[in-house]
Structure to design on (227 residues):
């Protein structure tokens, strides 16, 4: 069985993120669903990444950028090969595809995308990774949550991406990790996909994802929220 630490919305609090990561010394893999910085630059992004890795050489981080991650921070994440935007990544525990950015609202934050842009960023890679006969667990990681799930409720309304909701139904990944909506922490089974919004790591929230092989060879996934 593989255990993975799932974070989102660190918002520059590398100290809190490091404390969370260091409380799981047995875990070597960390997934971060955006907002690594709080409108910070490349130096802030680097500081958070280094805090998460610490002195644990085997520890790996994979992430997507959030709406509060400016261009300079995103360029660092891409250059450091931390960002899975625009690629399918074969991790030891499964295949990951991802897309960053928040769904465009007022356009006041650093990285917002319209529905069509979210579709363009993700669907090509998701379609390739979800082809017939896939054997490895398929994990999607986005900052914005899919619409109509327990991960996208804000003030009693659903505010997630309708394109992501369509792709969740069409491609049926094993796990969909997201963030952005701090109020909608969840581990929720949505039409066969385990949707995980770990909540804001800047407040100490996180989740643990477990993946193991079932008796029929198919991956079994479960997750739980923690703080």
């Amino acid at each position: 069985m593989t255990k993975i630490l799932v974070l989102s919305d660190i918002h520059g609090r590398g100290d809190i993120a490091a404390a969370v990561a260091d409380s799981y010394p047995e875990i070597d893999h960390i997934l971060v669903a955006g907002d690594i910085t709080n409108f910070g630059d490349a130096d802030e992004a680097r500081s958070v990444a280094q805090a998460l890795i610490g002195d644990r050489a085997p520890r790996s981080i994979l992430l997507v950028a959030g709406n509060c991650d400016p261009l300079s921070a995103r360029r660092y994440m891409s250059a450091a090969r931390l960002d899975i935007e625009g690629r399918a990544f074969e991790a030891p525990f499964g295949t990951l595809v991802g897309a960053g950015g928040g769904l465009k609202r007022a356009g006041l934050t650093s990285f917002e995308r319209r529905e069509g842009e979210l579709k363009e960023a993700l669907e090509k890679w998701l379609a390739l990774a979800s082809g017939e006969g896939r054997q490895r667990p398929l994990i999607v990681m986005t900052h914005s949550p899919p619409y109509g799930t327990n991960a996208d409720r804000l003030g009693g309304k659903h505010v997630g991406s309708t394109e992501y909701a369509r792709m969740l139904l069409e491609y049926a990944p094993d796990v969909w990790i997201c963030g952005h909506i701090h109020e909608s922490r969840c581990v929720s089974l949505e039409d066969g996909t385990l949707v995980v919004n770990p909540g804001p790591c800047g407040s100490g929230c996180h989740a643990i994802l477990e993946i193991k092989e079932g008796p029929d060879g198919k991956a079994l996934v479960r997750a739980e929220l923690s703080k």
